[in-house]
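Appendix B. One record, verbatim.
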Amino acid sequence: MRKRALTLVGQGRSLNSVSKETGISRAAIRSWQTRVEPLGWMHRTVPCPRCCDVPREPEDPAAYSYLLGLYLGDGCVSFQRRDVYSLRIACADAWPGLIEACASAIQSVRPDNKVCRVQSGGCQYVSSWSKHWPCLLPQHGPGKKHERRIALEPWQQEIVDAHPWELIRGLIHSDGCRTTNWTTRMIGGERKRYEYPRYFFTNLSGDIIRLFTDTLDSVGVDWKAANQRNISVARKASVALMDVHVGPKY
């Protein structure tokens, strides 16, 4: 119960709301915040693959590539206290499969850290606490992602090059969709409605847009820029390829 209450407070919840949800007094929660022992579970001495003596790839690089896509779309890394950071990724309630995939990816990348879910309006925040999220996600920084430069480190690019579809899938699952468009055509002198599937990706960051399109190029997917922040994949062969490796949200 103590861990749960501290986790909720760490997600930005007020002491009053956490007290009402858990039945624990605000005074008790305040006392837990100032004690060292209850926070020991967040300081596990699990080696970080990036800041150890010999840096290496994160656990499960394919899951990392997918998680990187989710983070760049709907994630954030926030400093909490005592050198601990929380990774939070917002996942809509409409896609329970996406929530499970997100939690699984976080657990695969940091298998010794707990993954929790905090319900909010229309979505769940899938989150995990660790000292090492800034090491694993160096795109972390102050301000909004589209207001600062986003560039992959060489070791991240190597993972994306080895697992491009996982990154594309993560980006689509966070800031994209598979939809059905329609138009009309003259067939035999009669105008008929014609429907076709299409993938869209939308992001305010030009850097993240370029990362998405560069990765599409690497796997042979044709795309077009609908405008500065919207990328469309509509050619039949490219949509079929996306269906095999990405598919609609679920």
